[in-house]
Amino acid sequence: MNLLENIREGLRSIAGNRLRTILTSLIIAIGITSLVGILTAIDGIQSSVNSSFAGLGANTFSIVARQDAFRRGGRIQRQDAPIDYFDAISFKRRFPYGATIAVSSVVTGAAQAKFGSKKTNPNVQLIGVDDVFLSVKGYTLQSGRNLTQNELQFARNVAIIGSELAGTLFEKKVNPLNQLIRVSGAQYKIVGVLEKKGGFSGGGDDRLILIPLDNARALAGTRKLSFDITASVPTVADQDEAVGEARGTMRLVRQDPLGQPDSFDIERADELAKETANITGYLRIGGFGIGFITLLGAAIALLNIMLVSVTERTREIGIRKSLGATPKRIREQFLIEAIVICILGGLGGIILGLGIGNLIATLVSQGKGGFVVPWLWMGLGIVVCVTVGLFAGIYPAVRASKLDPIEALRYE
């Protein structure tokens, strides 16, 4: 009995026990689905995050004030003073490096917009912006236009709204452009609607209203606003030098004493992307561990089923050995059966894991990012299937090969 005949016999045996084969393959498929599905979902989420950062641009950095108390040298430090309007404007005027600088301020993160009888939930961000805010932050217009210099200079009541707000207030029945909405007690004319951004931000970028910066200051009244500064340098290679210049300029603007720490933070887009990549790396390790534990349970179940198969086919093994089958050929037959069952289950698990993983990633990222095909994890799944087949099949195969042919023939 050569190897080819052994393979054929193993396949015939599998085909002759279809229900057992299906149930056993299903056990393996569930294990592979958990492994490939988790890792695919993590890759899909990472792809979504990368798309979000690509929209922002890797050559941008932001200057913000720390709003929480923090510990330094064993002592609790007070939070930084907010970056006020004059700090932001002074920095924009004095920054010597060639960069596009956007100044913005969040008036409120819990505004409610109204149009006729329609109104949104009170979770809308109302933000005062300048004319370069859209380009620096990576927003694109679906329709309409950007704020003009005249509107910014005279603090006109005009606004650009996010796509989610447009859908909620106008329901695709009315063109939002030139319509009047009411927010925070003031009436604004819509001049632009943003493209859907979605992504890892949880949809917050689609629930915002952008108004002229000076209009936002007037709307805030006596309440003191904190301003954010975002700079976009020409290329990524210029960023290190630009960040150094920005730190020096901002210290002069804020009058930070020599030897004292900065009274602000500089957040680089590429650092945020690297930090996110590190986090997803840990998630991959955790996901692989969970998938491995599931597969270990599947391997034990397969081992048990193969042992039962050896017991049921004891008489068959005795006949084969009496006809000249060597222990090596008996071992090969049972190993082949175990590996084929694992591969069948593995292919089904890979297909399921691919679909479920992408579905989870799509739900988490709210449709941002494309369909991910993780060839590495799919290849790993096949390797793991063969390994599980060897692990679960080798002991039953050795046990079968050691059966005494005379005792086996007597087995009922």
Automatic annotation (TrEMBL):
Keywords, sorted A to Z: Cell membrane, Membrane, Transmembrane, Transmembrane helix
Ranges annotated as spanning the membrane: 21-42, 288-311, 338-363, 375-398
Chief site of localization: membrane
Cellular component terms per the entry's GO annotation: plasma membrane
InterPro entries referenced in this protein's UniProt entry, alphabetically: ABC3_permease_C, MacB_PCD, Macrolide_Exporter_MacB
Highest taxon above the source species: Bacteria
One protein family per Pfam: FtsX
Domain MacB-like periplasmic core: 21-246
ABC3 transporter permease C-terminal domain segment(s): 290-405
A molecular-function term among this protein's GO annotations: transmembrane transporter activity
Membrane topology type: Multi-pass membrane protein
Compartment(s) of residence: Cell membrane
Similarity comment: Belongs to the ABC-4 integral membrane protein family.
Name of the featured protein: ABC3 transporter permease protein domain-containing protein
Protein source organism: Spirosoma linguale (strain ATCC 33905 / DSM 74 / LMG 10896 / Claus 1)
